[in-house]
Amino acid sequence: MPGLNFLLDVKAPEVMGGFRWPMLAGLVALIVSWFLTPYVKRFAIAKGAMDDPKLDDRRVHKEPIPRWGGLAIYAGIVLSLLIVLPFAFPKTTPFPNYLIGMLLVGAAVVVVGALDDLYQYPAKVQALFLLAAGVAIQLFRGASGHVMIGSFVIPFTHTLVPLSSTRELTIFLAVPLTAIYIFVVAKTMDTIDGVDGLASGIAAIAAATLMVISVYGAQPRVAIVAAAITGSAVGFLRHNYNPAKIFMGTGGAQLFGFLLACLSIVGALKTAAAVAIIVPIFVFGVPIIDAAIVVIRRVLSGQPITQADKQHLHHQLLNKGLSQRQTVWVLYSAALLLCILIIVVVRVYGKS
């Protein structure tokens, strides 16, 4: 189609070839999370990891539902990468340091989140842990010796910061900015997990968008990881869509946010500076907008910003009479629109 030349400025076979390994990774992750989730559900019930709607009035479900779906999500991602990456990169290292770091720190996010589902840690403890995770991932360097993912891009500035130079900037600016950015994305993904299928669907849309951007940006490994996240989210969504049989829990939602935040930093490396600044805003548009509105409302009303309430976008839509399914599809549609727009922008203006 001539009208799509501005999006596809390479030959069709080359484009489809770039999607071959990501599509396989996504399929494997989907199958694993789909079939593993019922076993995780039984495990959560046996251990008492249940979301009881009687705990507070923010819950929209009526009966206790098991959590810990994040365990199946993580397993889907890891097994997919273990199977696909060695075949996709037979002559190079399939698991570079940054990816090992993402999976190791991601495992900690899932475990701590699962414990939080049982013991309900204070909000400050959750925040400190996520900030620590954001710092920990930066300890894993690429082969070039740069901080995380080969070279580090300070979020929203597109400034490359190698560890071997400008050490003061690395310590006092790059490291905390990265940690805060990862915290914000992880936490906002957690806060929208209030309606059946919402967070898992939004994560799938965001990850699929990063996969497409990475394929066009000639970053095949990033595309494969993003596809694995997409597939695992869709496989879990089979059990999490309304009426949900299991929730992903704190660990699952924050795992999605953590991994996607890391990948969004990688994806900015081969994108023009002006476009790189807005990529996270569009990819994570729905959870970021939701969090911003809630924080502003709480500040204006004099409430602590960590105080939970029923002012999130999904609560507002439910209050207007929409069903859970209608609510998630309204927010899915908003996320899809934003992600399609950023793909178009990257294709048209994103060449560095």
Task: Describe how the helices and strands are arranged.
Elements: H1 12-47, E1 50-51, E2 65-66, H2 69-88, H3 97-119, H4 123-136, H5 167-191, H6 198-216, H7 220-240, H8 249-267, H9 273-283, H10 285-301, H11 313-319, H12 324-349
Antiparallel strand pairs: 1-2
Helix pairs in contact: 1-2, 1-6, 1-7, 2-3, 2-7, 2-8, 3-4, 3-8, 4-5, 5-8, 5-10, 6-7, 6-8, 6-12, 7-8, 9-12
Keywords summarizing the entry:
single chain, 352 residues, mainly alpha, two-stranded antiparallel sheet, 2 strands
Q: What features would you describe in this structure?
A:
With 352 residues, this protein is mostly helical. It has one domain. Strands 1-2 form a two-stranded antiparallel ribbon. α3 runs antiparallel to α4 and α7 packs antiparallel against α8. The chain is globular, with a radius of gyration of 20 Å. The N terminus is likely disordered.
State mean pLDDT (0 to 100 scale).
Answer: 83
Measure the end-to-end span. Answer: 26 Å
Q: Identify low-pLDDT runs.
A: 1-13, 142-166
Q: What's the Cα radius of gyration?
A: 20 Å
Percentage of residues assigned to helices? 55-70%
Q: Largest sheet, described in full?
A: 2 strands, antiparallel
The number of domains is 1
How many beta strands in the DSSP annotation?
2
- Sheet/helix structural class: mainly alpha
The run of helices and strands is HEEHHHHHHHHHHH
Q: Strand-residue fraction?
A: under 5%
By DSSP (H or I, 4+ residues per run), the number of helices equals: 12
- Spatial strand arrangement across the major sheet: 1-2
Overall 3D shape: globular
